[in-house]
Amino acid sequence: MNKIIYYVSITLLTVVSSCGNKETNVSRKLTLDNCPVIAQVINLQGDPVTNLDFSSVKDTFNLPLSSLLSSFQVIRLENSEDALTAAGQDTHIAVSDHYILVKSFRAGSSCKLYNRNGDFIRKISSQGQGPDEYNLSIYDQYLDENNNKIYLMEIRASKILVFDLDGQPQKHIPLAYITHKGRFVINDEKKTVTVMCIPFQGTPTALIWTQDFEGNIIQEYPVSDQFMLIPSTYDYEVRESLNTNASDFYLHNCIASQDTLYHYDIDSNTLHPVFTMHTGHEPICHYFTELPNHFLVTWYTQTSWNNELPRFPKILVDKQSLKGCFVNLKWNMLGNIDGPTNPSFNRGYFTAIMEPYALKEQLEKVLTSNQKLSPEVLRKVKELNNRITDDDNCIVFIGKLKTK
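Given the sequence above, the corresponding structure tokens read:
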């Protein structure tokens, strides 16, 4: 099968922001450097907290994706029947140096392993009632290539499933508590795992705890009233981006008009607030993502028929200058396409996945526009558009986040 892979050096790209953009209220001249200051650092019980005032965010500009990335790779996944997966809001990607793990609920709740060329390797576990299977769907996953391990946690979990890269079951990790929508961080050297979860009312649990691989608790951060979401349902989410040296924790919902992203200090077993947003009016469904140099605010509504989120501008805040604006992410390395509505920034990587018909639609729009693209970008857009068909498997995009 013919596959195409692009490795794009971001430093060599001609940065083109939004030529020919028809959106209203979008500045073609604005950049993050000349956006206004939209946040302030306040002291909250000894912790410096970046406080974003939503009412101060007025301007919108198109942000070149390359400004956040040091590399960018386009990978067409293999087209064999076993390799097929699906894009959508519930599809998540884990990345290592040589592998890609794709979890998709729409593709039968499958977890599939590929190499970084897009070649299908194998399916990892399956949905079922067996000791090495998951009952519902996978909520969090970790691909540890260095230690030849894959870790999977269900949406309601009593254990973390462990496999080697050959797909063989290893000794699973029993969890100290029944875990609802948990996120986890593995320390293979110490043989410990730190778990963050949604605390359910009336259920024994901690908000965050560290345990060994045998299920013995080492330390725990108890549940307080501010973190007890009532009613306790799966409508809430736990987010943890791990794009910095800190372990960030964000428990989000659409009820609170002001909420907070925290750093968890495992050494002192303490939570420290670092970022919050005050809307000043009715609540807006949103979530926070911490990037190496920025905070990113994404808001959303109900998913549409094709499991995609409606496209809204995001808010980007520079950690140092506190300047920020509404931004539309534009993939300038592919002619300023929009990409999917739900890209991910996790564990130092940008990842996204698209169905081929959706990608072709955006690429063809570029080719019929009056944008002034560099010859290199135009060549890549034409080549990619010519190589993919509507019957292809999904296309995965991977970028390494800039740290400076």
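The CA atoms of residues 16 and 256 lie 38 Å apart. Try to locate this feature in the token string yourself.
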